[in-house]
Write a structure and sequence with these properties.
Keywords: Methyltransferase, RNA-binding, S-adenosyl-L-methionine, Transferase, tRNA processing, tRNA-binding. It catalyses: guanosine(18) in tRNA + S-adenosyl-L-methionine = 2'-O-methylguanosine(18) in tRNA + S-adenosyl-L-homocysteine + H(+). Belongs to the class IV-like SAM-binding methyltransferase superfamily. RNA methyltransferase TrmH family. GO terms for molecular function: tRNA (guanine(18)-2'-O)-methyltransferase activity; tRNA binding. The protein is an alpha/beta fold. It folds into two domains: 155 residues, 3-Layer(aba) Sandwich (Alpha/beta knot); 55 residues, no CATH class. Helix content is 34%, strand content 17%. The chain has seven helices and nine strands; from the N terminus they run βαβαβαβββαβαααββ. Strands 3-2-1-6-4-7-5 form a seven-stranded parallel beta sheet, sandwiched between helices. It has a two-stranded antiparallel ribbon with strand order 8-9. Strand 2, helix 2 and strand 3 form a beta-alpha-beta unit. Helix 1 crosses helix 2. It is elongated, with a radius of gyration of 20 Å. The two termini are 31 Å apart.
Length: 224
């Protein structure tokens, strides 16, 4: 999973407030290898909802922002092209975009759509062609359709065949996902993670601990 993560592909939820939509979007992001997504809302309780929705998967990091402007400024600073899914007159077919470039996709709620601030900050406005009476797809469905076009292009370009995460992040996430309870204890005590062997196993200096809910600790970590 970590070897397929795409740190230069992300998504921004602009006032997507329904927990079931948040959860479905996060699952789609995980499926295409997105490592981090962003969210902002004017509703005071949305941060609790987004945190709860993020709990449906522990594989995708959700960064919450107080404003869409601050969130997009940070993303632009990483050199990402910003795409806004909208029905504006400037939109283009979502399949015409080059998703092998560092890319962040903005999605808004079905009723309000993407905010004016986000539209103004976007490099491209995109839309999904439809031929029925319905004017828009559910936001989580739209996210999946667009993200899997990005996955298709990136697969064709070989971007999933080589690790793209920096080694430090890769090693940290590998340890936290393989040994979540031990990782939590070490973080709480401010201690470094032991280096895993080539098979992802703890080194021989690690032993079982009498502490509850642990999977073993290292004698040289100060916990044994």
């Amino acid at each position: 999973m970590l070897a397929h993560r795409q740190p230069d592909l992300s998504l921004v939820m602009d006032n997507v407030n329904k927990a079931h939509n948040l959860s479905a979007i996060i699952r789609s992001c995980d499926a295409v290898g997105i490592h981090e997504i962003h969210a902002v809302s004017y509703r005071k309780n949305i941060f609790d909802r987004q945190t709860a929705a993020a709990g449906t998967t522990r594989w995708v990091e959700v960064t919450l922002h107080q404003s869409i402007t601050s969130g997009l400024s940070m993303i632009a600073g990483r050199g990402m092209q910003i795409l806004a899914a909208s029905g504006s007159s400037k939109n283009v077919d979502f399949r015409s975009i080059d998703y092998t470039r560092p890319t962040a996709l903005i999605l808004g709620a079905e009723w309000d759509g993407v905010s004016t601030e986000a539209l103004e900050a976007a490099d491209h406005h995109i839309s999904i062609p439809m031929h029925g009476m319905i004017e828009s797809l559910n936001v989580s469905v739209a996210a999946a359709v667009i993200l899997f076009e990005a996955e298709r292009q990136r697969t064709a370009a070989g971007m999933y065949s080589r690790p793209m995460l920096e080694k430090e992040s890769f090693d940290r996430l590998l340890f936290e996902n393989a040994y979540p309870r031990l990782g939590r204890i070490l973080r709480e005590k401010g201690l470094p993670y032991p280096e895993l062997d080539v098979n992802g196993q703890l080194p021989s200096s690690c032993h079982d601990s009498d502490m509850p809910d642990t999977e073993g600790v290292c004698s040289d970590s100060g916990l044994y």
